[in-house]
Description:
7-stranded parallel sheet; single chain; globular; alpha/beta; 8 helices; 7 strands; Rossmann fold
Amino acid sequence: MAQVNVPVVRNILQANERIAAENRKRFDEAGMYVINVMSSPGAGKTSLLEKTIDGLAGRVKMAVIEGDIQSSYDAERIQRKGVQAVQINTDGGCHLDGNMIQIAMDSLDLDGVDLLIIENVGNLVCPAEFNLGEHDKVMILSVAEGDDKPLKYPLMFQLSSVLLVNKIDLLPYIDCSIETIRERAHQLNGTQQVFEVSCRTGEGLEAWFAWLENKIREQRKARAE
């Protein structure tokens, strides 16, 4: 059985933390609020971004960093909304890291940006382990994935400030309990905000928009002080 070189892994994480701290300093100096959006593939990350762009249009200036193993499809979807976006292709890597974000920022005009959204690679494991310098981790869980996911992927739930339970319009057709998701998520993270939403129908999204706007105001206030 292959052995895991623990010191090497520790060194990688420590190096990433140093770069993430540099990113955070840059975000704070710009007065920009930054979220790291994570989920499994198909849970609705890009759809949520599109709805968020529409919902905050005219009130919040946004930019997006898209992470994927291959293709620029998601970044092109965001650009069609009139928001600047840059694509990071990891070529098989299962997550984004601080260095990737640092490089990607150089391709964006961040002057006056209120909200930077980082869409991580679709994966419920690795993205949670790597700090990017973001202010909050946000995870999306679709009801189609089932209510057992907090038990199977606890770290993602422990570290995320927000859980968006998406595709609630499918609840009549599947065996999933939102109450169970909430209970198990809060056992892991008692302060986690939970929003029940449908990106298809728009249900529940206004509460998510309001939460984001409040966070953006707090970031602006902190910079002014």
